[in-house]
Prior knowledge:
The protein has ten helices and nine strands. It has helices at 15-27, 38-47, 66-69, 88-96, 109-119, 142-145, 154-164, 169-176, 180-194, 198-203, and strands spanning 7-11, 31-35, 52-55, 58-59, 62-63, 78-83, 101-104, 130-133, 138-141.
Amino acid sequence: MAENPLSILFVDDHNLVASGISGLLRAQAHNVITVKNLTDARSALEKNSYDLLLLDINLGHENGLSLLETPTPGCPPRVILLSGISEQEFIFKGFHLGAFGFIPKSIEPEELMSAISTMLTHPPLPEAGWMWDTQKKAVLSALLCFPRETILTHKEREVFMHMREGNLDKQIADIMGLSIHTVRVHIRAIKRKRGHNRRLEQVY
């Protein structure tokens, strides 16, 4: 039983996952509202006040991070990404947009309550956010969970995301309002940090 029950909005489009996790949270006396899409999430945030937002990144045809890209009335100060997507680009983009922490969906159910409660005892991090390390069973700064030399800057991350969408150099330059030279400098940095891996080969 939680010492301080929380009011939680849980955004996840998988019925089984949402039902299982919300059940675990309610068993700890937390008040949980579950919604499947961003429209319902925004509506719920406008109608009620929450202590915590649990947000999946992959919501079918929607990207959960879109909820954080524009100011949303009622959005709680603590947002934890609870997702099967564990690519650093998405995690760090979430942190850049204001997310407080990240917990992978690969976590064991009995660990989830500990992960959430432990994470919420930590102060916000200025550069990134907190992650639950399933191997160490501990909360760590995301900057310690990925090799520092592989972490992209915010601009490099934006370029990388556009590359993944199949945009060419000139298109990325136009979208971001940059010169094509600057875009290519970012691309070289991305390749240096991340290597010529299969994802890059697929989009570039």
